[in-house]
Amino acid sequence: MNYIQLEKLGEGTYATVYKGRSRATNEIVALKEIHLDPEEGTPSTAIREISLMKELNHPNILHLYDVIHTENKLVLVFEYCDQDLKRYMDTHGVRGALDPATVRSFMYQLLRGTAYCHDNRVLHRDLKPQNLLINRKGELKIGDFGLARAYGVPVNTYSNEVVTLWYRAPDVLMGSRNYDAAIDIWSCGCIMAEMITGMPLFRGRDNPDQLLAIMKIIGTPEDRVIKKMAQETPDIQFKSYPRFPKVPWPNILPGASAQACDLIDRLLQFDPTSRPHALDALFHPYFTDPTAHHPNSSSVPQPVPVGVMPAPVFHVLPNGQSVYMPQPSNAPGTRAAAPQPYQYAAMNDPSMARHPAYPEQGHHAAFGGQPMHHAPQYAQVPTYGYGQHVHPQSHLQQAQPQQQQQPQHPVYPVAGYPQYPGR
Protein backbone atom coordinates (compact mmCIF):
# COMPACT_ATOMS: atom_id res chain seq x y z
CA MET A 1 0.00 0.00 0.00
CA ASN A 2 1.18 3.51 -0.82
CA TYR A 3 0.18 4.75 2.62
CA ILE A 4 1.59 4.20 6.11
CA GLN A 5 -0.71 3.78 9.11
CA LEU A 6 0.40 6.11 11.91
CA GLU A 7 -2.23 5.78 14.63
CA LYS A 8 -5.75 4.57 15.18
CA LEU A 9 -8.30 7.39 15.31
CA GLY A 10 -11.52 5.50 15.91
CA GLU A 11 -13.53 2.38 15.23
CA GLY A 12 -17.16 1.78 14.32
CA THR A 13 -19.39 -1.09 13.29
CA TYR A 14 -18.39 -1.00 9.65
CA ALA A 15 -14.92 0.55 9.61
CA THR A 16 -11.77 1.53 11.48
CA VAL A 17 -10.17 4.91 10.81
CA TYR A 18 -6.42 5.54 10.99
CA LYS A 19 -4.25 8.57 10.62
CA GLY A 20 -1.84 7.87 7.77
CA ARG A 21 0.83 9.33 5.55
CA SER A 22 1.38 9.07 1.82
CA ARG A 23 4.67 7.39 0.91
CA ALA A 24 4.85 9.47 -2.27
CA THR A 25 4.06 12.96 -0.97
CA ASN A 26 4.34 12.66 2.85
CA GLU A 27 0.87 14.22 3.05
CA ILE A 28 -1.13 13.31 6.15
CA VAL A 29 -4.36 11.50 5.24
CA ALA A 30 -7.19 9.60 6.90
CA LEU A 31 -7.41 5.88 6.09
CA LYS A 32 -10.87 4.35 6.49
CA GLU A 33 -10.49 0.56 6.49
CA ILE A 34 -13.83 -1.11 5.75
CA HIS A 35 -14.61 -4.35 7.57
CA LEU A 36 -15.21 -6.98 4.87
CA ASP A 37 -17.31 -10.06 5.51
CA PRO A 38 -16.16 -13.08 3.46
CA GLU A 39 -19.77 -14.08 2.86
CA GLU A 40 -21.48 -10.69 2.55
CA GLY A 41 -18.79 -8.95 0.52
CA THR A 42 -18.46 -5.16 0.39
CA PRO A 43 -21.02 -3.37 2.61
CA SER A 44 -23.65 -1.32 0.79
CA THR A 45 -22.69 1.69 2.92
CA ALA A 46 -19.16 1.59 1.48
CA ILE A 47 -20.45 1.27 -2.08
CA ARG A 48 -22.72 4.28 -1.57
CA GLU A 49 -19.96 6.33 0.00
CA ILE A 50 -17.48 5.59 -2.77
CA SER A 51 -19.89 6.14 -5.66
CA LEU A 52 -21.15 9.47 -4.35
CA MET A 53 -17.93 10.93 -2.95
CA LYS A 54 -16.07 10.20 -6.17
CA GLU A 55 -18.45 12.62 -7.87
CA LEU A 56 -18.79 15.32 -5.21
CA ASN A 57 -16.07 17.98 -5.30
CA HIS A 58 -16.56 20.94 -2.98
CA PRO A 59 -14.55 22.81 -0.32
CA ASN A 60 -17.08 21.87 2.36
CA ILE A 61 -17.26 18.17 1.52
CA LEU A 62 -14.55 15.77 2.67
CA HIS A 63 -12.42 14.86 -0.33
CA LEU A 64 -11.94 11.21 -1.25
CA TYR A 65 -8.41 10.85 -2.63
CA ASP A 66 -8.19 7.17 -3.42
CA VAL A 67 -9.80 3.74 -3.06
CA ILE A 68 -7.63 0.69 -2.43
CA HIS A 69 -9.44 -2.61 -2.95
CA THR A 70 -7.70 -5.95 -2.51
CA GLU A 71 -9.05 -9.43 -1.91
CA ASN A 72 -9.03 -8.96 1.85
CA LYS A 73 -9.19 -5.22 2.35
CA LEU A 74 -11.02 -2.09 1.25
CA VAL A 75 -9.45 1.23 2.25
CA LEU A 76 -10.80 4.70 1.50
CA VAL A 77 -8.20 7.47 1.55
CA PHE A 78 -9.58 10.86 2.64
CA GLU A 79 -8.13 14.27 3.29
CA TYR A 80 -7.18 14.56 6.95
CA CYS A 81 -9.10 16.73 9.42
CA ASP A 82 -8.04 17.19 13.03
CA GLN A 83 -11.39 16.60 14.70
CA ASP A 84 -15.13 16.39 14.22
CA LEU A 85 -17.53 19.14 15.25
CA LYS A 86 -18.59 17.29 18.40
CA ARG A 87 -15.01 17.10 19.68
CA TYR A 88 -14.39 20.69 18.58
CA MET A 89 -17.36 21.82 20.69
CA ASP A 90 -16.11 19.84 23.67
CA THR A 91 -12.58 21.28 23.48
CA HIS A 92 -13.18 24.86 22.28
CA GLY A 93 -16.63 25.70 23.58
CA VAL A 94 -17.90 26.80 26.97
CA ARG A 95 -19.67 23.66 28.21
CA GLY A 96 -19.86 22.73 24.54
CA ALA A 97 -21.37 26.02 23.37
CA LEU A 98 -19.49 27.93 20.69
CA ASP A 99 -19.22 31.71 20.38
CA PRO A 100 -21.69 33.39 17.97
CA ALA A 101 -19.10 34.17 15.28
CA THR A 102 -17.94 30.55 15.16
CA VAL A 103 -21.52 29.25 14.98
CA ARG A 104 -22.22 31.64 12.12
CA SER A 105 -19.13 30.53 10.21
CA PHE A 106 -19.74 26.80 10.66
CA MET A 107 -23.43 27.11 9.75
CA TYR A 108 -22.56 29.03 6.59
CA GLN A 109 -20.13 26.30 5.55
CA LEU A 110 -22.55 23.51 6.50
CA LEU A 111 -25.33 25.03 4.41
CA ARG A 112 -22.93 25.62 1.48
CA GLY A 113 -21.93 21.97 1.46
CA THR A 114 -25.52 20.82 1.93
CA ALA A 115 -26.73 23.08 -0.89
CA TYR A 116 -24.11 21.56 -3.19
CA CYS A 117 -25.22 18.03 -2.27
CA HIS A 118 -28.87 18.84 -2.88
CA ASP A 119 -28.07 20.63 -6.13
CA ASN A 120 -26.46 17.38 -7.23
CA ARG A 121 -29.54 15.46 -6.02
CA VAL A 122 -27.76 13.79 -3.14
CA LEU A 123 -29.39 13.34 0.26
CA HIS A 124 -26.85 12.92 3.05
CA ARG A 125 -29.40 11.46 5.49
CA ASP A 126 -27.06 11.44 8.49
CA LEU A 127 -25.97 14.99 9.25
CA LYS A 128 -24.79 15.30 12.85
CA PRO A 129 -21.79 16.88 14.64
CA GLN A 130 -19.84 13.59 14.54
CA ASN A 131 -20.03 13.57 10.72
CA LEU A 132 -18.82 17.15 10.27
CA LEU A 133 -15.03 17.44 10.23
CA ILE A 134 -13.01 20.55 11.14
CA ASN A 135 -9.44 21.12 9.96
CA ARG A 136 -6.78 23.45 11.34
CA LYS A 137 -7.91 26.27 9.04
CA GLY A 138 -11.37 26.24 10.58
CA GLU A 139 -12.88 24.72 7.45
CA LEU A 140 -15.92 22.50 7.94
CA LYS A 141 -16.20 19.36 5.80
CA ILE A 142 -19.24 17.12 5.49
CA GLY A 143 -18.18 13.49 5.76
CA ASP A 144 -19.54 9.94 6.14
CA PHE A 145 -21.82 9.45 3.15
CA GLY A 146 -22.55 5.85 4.12
CA LEU A 147 -26.30 6.52 4.38
CA ALA A 148 -26.42 9.01 1.52
CA ARG A 149 -28.21 8.34 -1.72
CA ALA A 150 -29.19 10.03 -4.95
CA TYR A 151 -32.77 11.14 -5.47
CA GLY A 152 -34.80 12.59 -8.31
CA VAL A 153 -37.76 11.99 -10.58
CA PRO A 154 -39.64 9.70 -10.48
CA VAL A 155 -39.82 9.89 -6.70
CA ASN A 156 -38.60 6.71 -5.06
CA THR A 157 -39.57 5.12 -1.78
CA TYR A 158 -36.73 5.42 0.71
CA SER A 159 -35.95 3.77 3.99
CA ASN A 160 -37.14 5.56 7.13
CA GLU A 161 -34.31 4.00 9.16
CA VAL A 162 -32.03 6.93 8.44
CA VAL A 163 -30.48 9.81 10.38
CA THR A 164 -29.29 9.45 13.96
CA LEU A 165 -32.35 9.72 16.23
CA TRP A 166 -31.69 13.14 17.79
CA TYR A 167 -31.29 14.75 14.34
CA ARG A 168 -34.17 12.90 12.64
CA ALA A 169 -36.96 14.98 11.11
CA PRO A 170 -40.53 14.51 12.42
CA ASP A 171 -41.82 13.34 9.03
CA VAL A 172 -39.25 10.51 9.10
CA LEU A 173 -40.11 9.74 12.73
CA MET A 174 -43.74 9.39 11.64
CA GLY A 175 -42.82 6.79 9.03
CA SER A 176 -42.39 8.80 5.83
CA ARG A 177 -40.64 6.92 3.02
CA ASN A 178 -41.26 9.65 0.49
CA TYR A 179 -39.00 12.36 1.86
CA ASP A 180 -36.63 14.76 0.14
CA ALA A 181 -33.86 17.26 0.92
CA ALA A 182 -35.93 18.73 3.76
CA ILE A 183 -34.75 15.95 6.10
CA ASP A 184 -31.18 17.29 5.85
CA ILE A 185 -32.43 20.83 6.52
CA TRP A 186 -33.99 19.65 9.79
CA SER A 187 -30.67 18.12 10.82
CA CYS A 188 -28.91 21.43 10.04
CA GLY A 189 -31.31 23.23 12.37
CA CYS A 190 -30.64 20.73 15.16
CA ILE A 191 -26.88 21.16 14.68
CA MET A 192 -27.12 24.95 14.78
CA ALA A 193 -29.07 24.88 18.05
CA GLU A 194 -26.57 22.44 19.53
CA MET A 195 -23.63 24.71 18.64
CA ILE A 196 -25.38 27.60 20.40
CA THR A 197 -26.29 25.75 23.61
CA GLY A 198 -23.68 22.98 23.71
CA MET A 199 -26.40 20.35 24.13
CA PRO A 200 -28.51 18.37 21.63
CA LEU A 201 -31.86 20.11 21.23
CA PHE A 202 -34.14 17.05 21.09
CA ARG A 203 -33.04 14.02 23.12
CA GLY A 204 -35.53 11.19 22.77
CA ARG A 205 -35.06 7.51 23.59
CA ASP A 206 -36.93 6.13 20.58
CA ASN A 207 -39.06 7.40 17.69
CA PRO A 208 -42.24 8.18 19.71
CA ASP A 209 -40.25 9.78 22.53
CA GLN A 210 -38.22 11.83 20.04
CA LEU A 211 -41.39 13.09 18.38
CA LEU A 212 -42.73 14.06 21.80
CA ALA A 213 -39.49 15.91 22.63
CA ILE A 214 -39.82 17.87 19.38
CA MET A 215 -43.43 18.89 20.04
CA LYS A 216 -42.60 20.02 23.58
CA ILE A 217 -40.41 22.72 22.03
CA ILE A 218 -41.84 23.64 18.62
CA GLY A 219 -45.43 22.86 19.64
CA THR A 220 -47.94 20.24 18.57
CA PRO A 221 -48.74 20.78 14.88
CA GLU A 222 -52.22 21.91 13.91
CA ASP A 223 -54.63 19.32 12.55
CA ARG A 224 -54.50 20.90 9.09
CA VAL A 225 -50.71 20.39 8.99
CA ILE A 226 -51.01 16.72 9.91
CA LYS A 227 -53.82 16.24 7.39
CA LYS A 228 -51.74 17.88 4.68
CA MET A 229 -48.70 15.73 5.48
CA ALA A 230 -50.84 12.57 5.52
CA GLN A 231 -52.28 13.42 2.11
CA GLU A 232 -48.83 14.03 0.64
CA THR A 233 -47.23 10.99 2.29
CA PRO A 234 -49.55 8.00 2.87
CA ASP A 235 -46.89 6.23 4.96
CA ILE A 236 -47.14 8.81 7.73
CA GLN A 237 -48.76 7.63 10.95
CA PHE A 238 -49.65 10.16 13.62
CA LYS A 239 -50.99 9.22 17.03
CA SER A 240 -52.86 11.51 19.36
CA TYR A 241 -50.51 13.75 21.34
CA PRO A 242 -51.14 16.38 24.02
CA ARG A 243 -51.45 19.96 22.81
CA PHE A 244 -48.08 21.52 23.56
CA PRO A 245 -47.65 25.27 22.97
CA LYS A 246 -44.62 26.48 21.07
CA VAL A 247 -41.78 27.63 23.33
CA PRO A 248 -40.25 30.97 22.21
CA TRP A 249 -36.77 30.37 20.79
CA PRO A 250 -35.14 33.05 23.01
CA ASN A 251 -36.20 30.89 25.97
CA ILE A 252 -34.51 27.85 24.44
CA LEU A 253 -31.46 29.73 23.11
CA PRO A 254 -30.70 32.46 25.66
CA GLY A 255 -28.29 35.02 24.29
CA ALA A 256 -28.84 34.07 20.64
CA SER A 257 -29.60 36.92 18.25
CA ALA A 258 -33.06 37.45 16.79
CA GLN A 259 -31.73 36.46 13.35
CA ALA A 260 -30.27 33.22 14.71
CA CYS A 261 -33.58 32.33 16.36
CA ASP A 262 -35.48 33.14 13.18
CA LEU A 263 -33.21 30.96 11.02
CA ILE A 264 -33.52 28.02 13.42
CA ASP A 265 -37.29 28.49 13.48
CA ARG A 266 -37.38 28.24 9.68
CA LEU A 267 -35.10 25.20 9.54
CA LEU A 268 -37.09 23.36 12.22
CA GLN A 269 -40.56 23.47 10.71
CA PHE A 270 -42.70 20.41 11.43
CA ASP A 271 -44.07 20.42 7.87
CA PRO A 272 -41.16 19.52 5.54
CA THR A 273 -42.58 21.66 2.73
CA SER A 274 -42.19 24.73 4.97
CA ARG A 275 -38.45 24.27 5.50
CA PRO A 276 -36.26 26.39 3.22
CA HIS A 277 -33.82 24.96 0.74
CA ALA A 278 -30.20 25.15 1.92
CA LEU A 279 -29.56 27.59 -0.90
CA ASP A 280 -32.36 29.86 0.28
CA ALA A 281 -31.10 29.72 3.86
CA LEU A 282 -27.71 31.10 2.81
CA PHE A 283 -29.40 34.42 2.01
CA HIS A 284 -31.05 34.68 5.41
CA PRO A 285 -30.28 37.94 7.29
CA TYR A 286 -28.38 35.86 9.85
CA PHE A 287 -25.57 35.69 7.29
CA THR A 288 -26.03 39.00 5.47
CA ASP A 289 -26.79 41.29 8.43
CA PRO A 290 -23.64 42.18 10.43
CA THR A 291 -25.73 42.65 13.59
CA ALA A 292 -26.70 38.98 13.53
CA HIS A 293 -23.98 37.89 15.95
CA HIS A 294 -24.15 41.01 18.16
CA PRO A 295 -27.47 40.36 19.94
CA ASN A 296 -26.96 42.89 22.73
CA SER A 297 -24.89 45.59 21.03
CA SER A 298 -26.17 48.93 19.76
CA SER A 299 -22.84 50.10 18.32
CA VAL A 300 -22.61 47.65 15.45
CA PRO A 301 -22.07 48.17 11.71
CA GLN A 302 -25.07 49.01 9.54
CA PRO A 303 -26.78 46.17 7.66
CA VAL A 304 -25.44 45.16 4.28
CA PRO A 305 -27.36 46.94 1.48
CA VAL A 306 -30.03 44.87 -0.24
CA GLY A 307 -28.64 43.02 -3.25
CA VAL A 308 -25.12 42.76 -1.88
CA MET A 309 -23.79 39.56 -0.37
CA PRO A 310 -20.49 40.17 1.45
CA ALA A 311 -17.40 38.50 0.08
CA PRO A 312 -15.72 35.95 2.34
CA VAL A 313 -12.84 36.96 4.56
CA PHE A 314 -10.98 35.13 7.28
CA HIS A 315 -12.22 35.61 10.84
CA VAL A 316 -9.74 34.77 13.61
CA LEU A 317 -11.31 32.82 16.45
CA PRO A 318 -10.23 33.22 20.09
CA ASN A 319 -8.12 30.07 19.79
CA GLY A 320 -6.16 31.53 16.87
CA GLN A 321 -7.88 29.56 14.12
CA SER A 322 -9.09 31.29 10.98
CA VAL A 323 -12.51 30.57 9.54
CA TYR A 324 -14.48 31.91 6.59
CA MET A 325 -16.78 34.78 7.45
CA PRO A 326 -18.82 37.14 5.28
CA GLN A 327 -17.42 40.66 5.19
CA PRO A 328 -19.94 43.04 6.82
CA SER A 329 -19.60 46.01 4.52
CA ASN A 330 -20.02 47.10 0.93
CA ALA A 331 -16.33 47.91 0.70
CA PRO A 332 -13.78 46.78 -1.89
CA GLY A 333 -13.76 43.02 -1.86
CA THR A 334 -17.49 42.60 -1.49
CA ARG A 335 -19.47 41.02 -4.26
CA ALA A 336 -22.96 41.37 -5.61
CA ALA A 337 -25.28 38.69 -4.41
CA ALA A 338 -27.22 36.25 -6.51
CA PRO A 339 -29.88 38.23 -8.36
CA GLN A 340 -32.77 38.94 -6.04
CA PRO A 341 -35.60 38.49 -6.50
CA TYR A 342 -34.90 35.00 -7.79
CA GLN A 343 -35.60 34.31 -11.44
CA TYR A 344 -35.53 30.56 -11.90
CA ALA A 345 -36.78 27.37 -10.32
CA ALA A 346 -35.03 24.06 -10.87
CA MET A 347 -37.05 21.60 -12.89
CA ASN A 348 -37.60 17.89 -12.34
CA ASP A 349 -36.59 18.09 -8.68
CA PRO A 350 -39.37 17.58 -6.14
CA SER A 351 -37.47 19.38 -3.40
CA MET A 352 -36.23 22.42 -5.28
CA ALA A 353 -39.42 22.94 -7.28
CA ARG A 354 -41.03 24.69 -4.34
CA HIS A 355 -38.13 26.93 -3.31
CA PRO A 356 -36.37 29.91 -4.86
CA ALA A 357 -33.47 28.58 -6.86
CA TYR A 358 -30.10 30.17 -7.54
CA PRO A 359 -29.56 30.87 -11.25
CA GLU A 360 -26.13 29.24 -11.14
CA GLN A 361 -27.19 25.81 -9.96
CA GLY A 362 -26.36 24.08 -13.22
CA HIS A 363 -22.59 24.40 -13.02
CA HIS A 364 -22.34 24.34 -9.21
CA ALA A 365 -19.67 27.05 -9.16
CA ALA A 366 -21.99 29.12 -7.01
CA PHE A 367 -20.67 27.41 -3.91
CA GLY A 368 -17.19 26.45 -4.98
CA GLY A 369 -18.00 23.03 -6.37
CA GLN A 370 -17.17 21.36 -9.65
CA PRO A 371 -19.67 20.49 -12.40
CA MET A 372 -21.38 17.13 -12.24
CA HIS A 373 -22.35 14.96 -15.19
CA HIS A 374 -25.93 16.12 -15.67
CA ALA A 375 -27.63 18.84 -17.64
CA PRO A 376 -29.73 21.06 -15.36
CA GLN A 377 -32.94 22.61 -16.55
CA TYR A 378 -34.62 25.78 -15.45
CA ALA A 379 -38.09 27.18 -15.78
CA GLN A 380 -38.89 30.86 -15.97
CA VAL A 381 -41.19 31.77 -13.08
CA PRO A 382 -42.41 34.99 -11.48
CA THR A 383 -39.82 36.69 -9.32
CA TYR A 384 -39.71 36.06 -5.58
CA GLY A 385 -37.78 37.40 -2.63
CA TYR A 386 -36.28 35.66 0.39
CA GLY A 387 -38.55 33.18 2.10
CA GLN A 388 -41.17 33.12 -0.66
CA HIS A 389 -41.88 29.94 -2.57
CA VAL A 390 -42.35 29.40 -6.28
CA HIS A 391 -45.49 27.80 -7.64
CA PRO A 392 -45.43 24.07 -6.82
CA GLN A 393 -46.07 23.17 -10.45
CA SER A 394 -43.13 25.18 -11.79
CA HIS A 395 -41.07 22.03 -12.29
CA LEU A 396 -43.59 20.88 -14.90
CA GLN A 397 -42.97 23.85 -17.15
CA GLN A 398 -40.90 23.53 -20.29
CA ALA A 399 -37.45 25.09 -20.14
CA GLN A 400 -36.25 27.15 -23.07
CA PRO A 401 -32.66 26.69 -24.34
CA GLN A 402 -31.81 30.35 -23.86
CA GLN A 403 -32.84 30.13 -20.20
CA GLN A 404 -30.32 27.38 -19.55
CA GLN A 405 -27.28 29.38 -20.60
CA GLN A 406 -25.90 30.65 -17.32
CA PRO A 407 -22.77 32.81 -17.06
CA GLN A 408 -19.64 31.43 -15.43
CA HIS A 409 -17.83 33.55 -12.86
CA PRO A 410 -14.28 33.46 -11.51
CA VAL A 411 -13.86 31.74 -8.18
CA TYR A 412 -11.83 32.89 -5.20
CA PRO A 413 -8.61 30.84 -5.34
CA VAL A 414 -8.59 29.79 -1.69
CA ALA A 415 -12.10 29.73 -0.32
CA GLY A 416 -13.75 28.67 -3.55
CA TYR A 417 -16.36 31.41 -3.31
CA PRO A 418 -17.70 32.86 -6.57
CA GLN A 419 -16.71 36.44 -7.27
CA TYR A 420 -19.36 38.54 -8.95
CA PRO A 421 -18.58 41.72 -10.85
CA GLY A 422 -19.62 44.90 -9.08
CA ARG A 423 -22.75 46.70 -10.18
Automatic annotation (TrEMBL):
* UniProt cross-references to InterPro entries, sorted A to Z: CDK, Kinase-like_dom_sf, Prot_kinase_dom, Protein_kinase_ATP_BS, Ser/Thr_kinase_AS
Q: What family classification does the UniProt entry report for this protein?
A: Belongs to the protein kinase superfamily. CMGC Ser/Thr protein kinase family. CDC2/CDKX subfamily.
Would I find Nucleotide-binding among this entry's keywords? yes
**UniProt-annotated binding residues for ATP:** 32
The EC number on file is 2.7.11.22
Note the SMART domains from the entry. S_TKc
Q: PANTHER family, per this entry?
A: CELL DIVISION PROTEIN KINASE, CYCLIN-DEPENDENT KINASE 5
- Please report the organism this UniProt entry assigns to the protein: Dacryopinax primogenitus (strain DJM 731)
User: This chain belongs to which protein, by name?
Assistant: cyclin-dependent kinase
* Alphabetized PROSITE patterns for the sequence: PROTEIN_KINASE_ATP, PROTEIN_KINASE_DOM, PROTEIN_KINASE_ST
Pfam families, per database record: Pkinase
Keyword list (alphabetical) reads: ATP-binding, Kinase, Nucleotide-binding, Serine/threonine-protein kinase, Transferase
Q: Where is the composition biased (Low complexity)?
A: 391-409
Region listing for Disordered, in residue ranges: 385-423
* GO CC, alphabetical: cytoplasm; nucleus
Task: Work out whether the entry's keyword set contains Cell wall biogenesis/degradation.
Answer: no
Under SUPFAM superfamilies, the record lists: Protein kinase-like (PK-like) (SSF56112)
Query: Superkingdom of the source?
Result: Eukaryota
